[in-house]
Amino acid sequence: MAGKKKKSKGATDTILPFERHIFELEDKIRATESEEERKGLEKQLQQERESVYPNLSPWQRVQLARHSQRPRMLDYTTRIFDDVFELHGDRALGDDPAIIAGIARFQGETVMIVGHQKGVSTEEKVERNFGMAHPEGYRKAMRMYTLAERFNFPILSFVDTPAAHPGIEAEQHGQGPAIARSILQGLSTRAPIFAAVLGEGGSGGALAIAVSDHTAMFEHAIYVICPPERCAEILWRDVEKKELAASALKVTAGDLLGFGIIDTIMPEPGGGAHRNPDGAAQVLAEEIEKFLAASKKGQWSPQKRQEKYQRMGEWYEDLPPAACVVADQG
Amino acid sequence: MALFERSKFARLMGGKKKVPDGVWMKCPACNQAVYRVEVESNQEVCPLCNHHFRIAAHSRIEYLVDEGTFVETHANIASTDPLQFKVGKETYTERVERAKGASGLDEAIITGFAHIDGHRLCLAAMDANFIMASMGSAVGERFHRAAMDAIEERVCMVCIAASGGARMQEGILALMQMAKTADAVRQMNEAGIPYITILTDATTGGVYASFASLGDITLAEPQANIGFAGKRLIEGALKVKIPEGFQTSEYQFNNGFIDKIVPRSEMRETVAKLLSYLTPA
Ligand SMILES: [Zn+2]
Does residue B147 sit in the same domain as residue B269? Predict the structure, then answer.
């Protein structure tokens, strides 16, 4: 997997500070002609990886989750599905390229896929608005949910967005109502839903297509109420406090599992999904396989899904005492 | 204990954190000096320009329902600090206490039963004086329980919405309240319980993108700010000038997202009229 790294200037631009030493070791391994030295370096590389990745700070995980070379939805779907028939349009206003949807085949079974595509090249990023969907995108997703329910396909959702698009047209076309209805449909649909958080699960724009029977999240992905920069701006009144905000918001897969928001963490191959997209796709495919097998055994039901979301949150009951006194007085 | 006494006192005073003290006050819309008493006796609407002031949840309830009929429910549901969140020296628990002192409320939403023109209903009212009426787990749970009450008692649910969005200090758990409250609406829909929303200044973010947008019938006060993304965020992201009147009630009405814009003075009769059509069998 290490050998795949391209040694171009473009690639070095995307190396994160905590990855630098690893890349240097990899370069040395490629350069050396001594078998003995290579073995030593490889051992060093292994140790370095094992010490760096499990100990990343929340902000470093945010950086990894947004890594410009991190595999996007299409990098996964082209590897995982035999055949994808993309469907377009919300049947009202347009087609939103930030959300990709279609019918696909997974190990012979027909599935409905929906997800954010951030884009890889600069052109694609602009075309897809960096994966920030407009209401048209969420309405397209809802259309797919309806089709999936009607024809009894499982829905596989891929979440990777900084946020829903903040814009004039988006507001005009009902961004809030579109997200609300998309969430509502995710709760109501009789089709089983699997959601995978690939990179960035950003706020309501992510949740709109993330309501599921089973949510799996990649090890270095994040899932947030709002981007840490924005939280820093609002609560600390200083965007430079973003690292502090990232820690405070508890954004990592481990945190999310602890809160019961996600159901599984998908381990990433050494060095993260961007260092080995094939390996990451394999992990995701296995999760999907497990989900579909469980689905055939009748493990998921809309009622169980609804109850899961009804339980979410943490609150006191009958505490603090002041509140009780007031309640008694009506 | 001092804190408890203060918040209880404020609550017993009706939580009325109204327009600033003083005989005169300045209307932010028309910039004119107006008599405070005159504003208060006009349901906190500017007598000169009809500007609807942002008002406390208890005032909203008082203006909307039959006198003395409101009975609060679920006041025992309170915020925790699941993230151990801290900004500077202030913990989230302390932030909540500060909000209680400032608002006289114990959360950003009040729920209960009341009557309007004799029709019994379940009511939820939000209050911007409590951390911008942001939605954390306690808000989500209270809304959810109120919806379950409406289903159980087979009465209409009316929600007076106002919010800055999901409550950041509760992180992802606050985001998930969008799904939880949406599910409460789903249950009302399935049970045939009519759900009326009244959008007020300002209804934005995660609350707008969940239960506030899901009413069977959506009313709004005039000139309220209603939208998903904040204006400043849009301006910053797009580097464009926001058009005049963007995200007002009138704008959202013209775009097809609101059934009727109703002045505060007519809200009570309007809701009463709707209840006369909708009260479930
Ligand atoms: Zn005025």
Answer: yes
Residues B97 and B157 in one domain: yes
Q: How far is CA A204 from CA A39, A180, A214, A224, A321, in A?
A: 48, 9, 18, 9, 34
Most B-contacting residue of A315, A319, A325, A326 (CB-CB within 10 A), to test interface? A315
Q: Which domain holds residue B165?
A: 54-278
B168, B82: one domain = yes
Q: From residue A169, how far is each of A124, A164, A166, B230 by CA, in Å?
A: 21, 12, 9, 13
- Chain A interface includes B138 (CB < 8 A): yes
Measure CA B269 to chain center: 19
pTM for the predicted model, two decimal places:
0.92
Q: What is the DSSP string of A18-40?
A: GGHHHHHHHHHHHH---HHHHHH
Nearest to A175 among B174, B185, B228 (CB): B228
For B210, the closest chain A residue by CA position comes to A180
Would the ipTM clear 0.90, i.e. be above it?
yes
Query: Mind listing the pLDDT tens digit of every residue in chain B (281 residues)?
Result: 333 333 333 343 344 445 556 789 999 999 999 999 999 999 999 999 999 999 999 999 999 999 999 999 999 999 999 999 999 999 999 999 999 999 999 999 999 999 999 999 999 999 999 999 999 999 999 999 999 999 999 999 999 999 999 999 999 999 999 999 999 999 999 999 999 999 999 999 999 999 999 999 999 999 999 999 988 889 887 788 898 999 999 999 999 999 999 999 999 999 999 999 997 76
Ligand 1 mean position, distance from CA B199 (Å): 20
Claim to verify: residue B122 and residue B191 sit in the same structural domain: yes
Count interface pairs A-B at CB distance under 8 A.
Answer: 222
Top residue of B176, B181, B233 to mutate, by most chain A CBs within 10 Å, is: B176
Q: Report the C-alpha gap between B109 and B163 in whole angstroms.
A: 10
Q: Are residues B236 and B222 in the same domain?
A: yes
Count: domains in chain B: 2
